[in-house]
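testing teh design pipeline on a random one, pls ignore if ur not involved
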């Protein structure tokens, strides 16, 4: 059998096994965690299609026989069946391009506009049709929204700087801004925005967030220091990542 045909048969077999609820092992499989919105659900086996926020691309998800489904709200202890419009975080094994065997699904909320593009800021800065970023933030919260849109925001910022001939040659990424003062009392509400950080690739890879430290100088000057850190809990200990700077601040309008 030609090599290409063998590969095609392998993919079909993998999908069939996944649909049947069996564990599928592939030499090129890898773990993935994808955040998106459910577009359609197969009533027979629970398999579903969802649109990824970060890329606006559509994934197909099959359910592992031991899949865990967790809901942020209205937990009743029963097996929850997904519905179009559910905002989900899917963890599992990638079987093929944008095909995942879901082992854990977390339902973060529900949007009334599942069919349109949901997502990343367009290069022009205009909002795409379908569920808006603002409406999704109200459902899933600022922290999850920053995570969902971070790759698209990073690309948008770099293209904006390039258009002004101010681009950086360093590695960049977008991370949440976490308020240390808020996080001490209410960690779940500590995300107050997002920032792009820039630096050497190995250093940027270590950055998990930007810690916001607030102070007051002589009762007149309010000071906010922004520190790239290697933890999502900087209120416990602020550990700066050397060689990384903040290159852009992103405000969220909700």
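output:
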């Amino acid at each position: 059998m030609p090599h290409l045909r063998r590969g095609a048969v392998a993919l079909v077999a993998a999908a069939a096994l996944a649909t049947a609820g069996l564990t599928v092992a592939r030499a090129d499989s890898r773990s993935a965690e994808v955040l998106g919105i459910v577009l359609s659900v197969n009533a027979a086996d629970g398999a579903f299609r969802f649109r990824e926020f970060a890329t606006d691309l559509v994934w197909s998800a099959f359910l592992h026989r031991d899949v865990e489904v967790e809901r942020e709200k209205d937990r009743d202890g029963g097996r929850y069946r997904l519905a179009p419009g559910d905002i989900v975080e899917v963890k599992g094994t990638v079987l093929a391009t944008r095909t995942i065997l879901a082992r854990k699904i977390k339902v973060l909320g529900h949007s009334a506009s599942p069919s349109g593009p949901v997502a990343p800021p367009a290069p022009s800065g205009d909002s795409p049709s379908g569920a808006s970023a603002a409406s999704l933030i109200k459902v899933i919260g600022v922290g999850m929204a920053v995570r969902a849109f971070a790759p698209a925001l990073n690309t948008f910022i770099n293209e904006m700087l390039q258009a002004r001939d101010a681009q950086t040659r360093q590695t960049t990424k977008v991370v949440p801004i976490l308020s240390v003062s808020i996080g001490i009392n209410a960690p779940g509400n500590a995300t107050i925005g997002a920032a792009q950080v820039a630096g050497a690739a190995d250093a940027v890879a270590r950055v998990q967030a930007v810690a916001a430290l607030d102070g007051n100088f002589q009762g007149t000057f309010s000071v906010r220091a922004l520190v790239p850190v290697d933890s999502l809990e900087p209120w416990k200990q602020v550990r700066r990542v050397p060689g990384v700077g903040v290159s852009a601040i992103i405000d969220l309008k909700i």
